[in-house]
Amino acid sequence: MTNRERVQTALNRREPDRVPMFELTVANPVLQSVLGRRIEGFGTGEAKAAGIRAGMQGAEARRALIKRNVEGMMEFFEKVGYEMFWFRPHDFLVTFAMGLPDDITANSIFDVSITETETDTFRIESLEHGFWSIEKYEPESDTCVTVTDSISQGGIAELRRYVDYLEGTADVPLHESLQDGVGAIRLAVQRQKARGEEGMFVLGAADIAFPTFIPYLPLFLETMIDDPKLIARYMAATTEGMMTILRAQLELGVNGILGAEDWCFGGGPLVSPEMFRRFMAPHLKRIVDECHRCGVPYLKHLDGNTMVLLDILVDEVGIDGLHSIEPPAGMDIGWVKKTYGDRIAVLGNIDCAHLLTFGTPEQVVGAVKEILRTASPGGGHVFSSSNSIHSGVSPETFWTMVNAVREYGTYPISIPG
Questions:
Q1: Contacts of 414 (CB under 8 A, 6+ apart)
Q2: What is the mean pLDDT of residues 218-234?
């Protein structure tokens, strides 16, 4: 099978010739060990800080950063032999209230001033509208987070003012910086088509904007109770902005879409199933329906414990695959496959928090075999980590995992218990 056929077969819940492999993101030192050079990658603190610094330097620096990392990450995936590649066209872009890139929509505030107030600490401010946030990069932990912002400081009145802004720009076209990001999707699609049978299955990105990692999250959750109409307006306006980004990617010919916004932690989701169904599910379904209208699958990444939301995601929203099914959060890929495997593919799920960080080679191989034995028979399984290959994973452990999947992941799966 070609790489794309292998992935499509798995996503269609059938058995390909072997279990395809995928990672959401890969960080240094694994990246550097394979490429022989250092790039920032996607979804890392290093990448987010690089995006902020490029934003300070201007459009050419931003374009160079995007091109360097999209090409570098594709080269990495090709060298390792992965069959599927994912990129967010809003990675590396700087807006007010950075949070995660999944929170960035076409009607976000891109025209901002960026000031490094102290080493690796940045103030991002919209001089026109008065919104601001503070971002802090910690190289040692490879994190870059929003530490405070004008909404968390200003309360519900400031949140209402932000929603007013979002609604006033609901039909805005792609900003110049977003056009650069979408251009990277074009580059990925064209490169993989040119590789013919060796070309990867290219995933774009779209998700609802939920401020999971932004400081005004507590206010947002309180407002769900105190002023639900305001939250409904927020979700509608941000989803409208995301649809602009989604349609641009679909028009370029991506093979699928993956949304990577997190709403769950180890103990469960940030909101109850009832609140999820009321405020979030209809907007996510709008995104999923648009993908299906264009004939491409929608995959949802959620780490943490997602159990109480799965019925809604699978049966009401209509996702086509679930990533990453995190074992330390109590997620059992075998149970998910048994319960939902007739409707969705499963993507996962070797533990990257502990096993890939601290485990022995024998433990890693044993876990690979157990996951393949549990999740792969019958098809519908794409092997990946339980989140990403983060900076704590060594190259040696990474290759132990990859080689074990290649050795034991050929169909028909036959691994002694």
A1: none
A2: 98
Model confidence at 101: pLDDT above 90: no
Mark residue 277 as left, alpha or beta (left: phi above 0; alpha: psi -120 to 50; beta: remaining): alpha
pLDDT of residue 150: 97
Alpha-carbon span 5 to 370, nearest angstrom: 25
Long-range contacts of 246-251, Cβ-Cβ distance < 8 Å, separation of 24 or more: 246/204, 246/206, 246/287, 246/290, 246/291, 247/290, 248/89, 248/174, 248/182, 248/185, 249/89, 249/182, 249/185, 249/204, 249/205, 249/206, 250/204, 250/290, 250/291, 250/294, 250/296
- Can you give the pTM of this predicted structure? 0.97
Expressed in percent and rounded to 5, the helix, strand and coil fractions of the chain are: 50, 15, 35
Of the chain, the percentage scoring pLDDT greater than 70 comes to: 100
- Report residue 281 as tokens: 């599910």
**Among 120, 107, 115, CA closest to 49:** 120
Q: How far apart are CA 148 and CA 336, in angstroms?
A: 37
Torsion angle in degrees (nearest 10) through CA of 40, 42, 48, 51: 70
The closest of 261, 108, 122 to 181, measured between CA atoms, is 108
Q: How far is CA 105 from CA 55, 240, 277, 311, 388, in A?
A: 17, 8, 22, 27, 23
- Helix H or strand E segment including 399: helix 395-408
Write the CA distances from 24 to 43, 84, 94, 388, integer angstroms: 9, 9, 21, 6
**Looking at the domain 3-89+171-211+238-408, which fold is it?**
TIM Barrel (3.20.20)
Q: In this predicted structure, what is the pLDDT of residue 272?
A: 97
Q: Which residues contact 145 (CB under 8 A, 6 or more apart)?
A: 45, 135, 136, 213
Residue 281: in which H helix or E strand, if any? helix 281-293
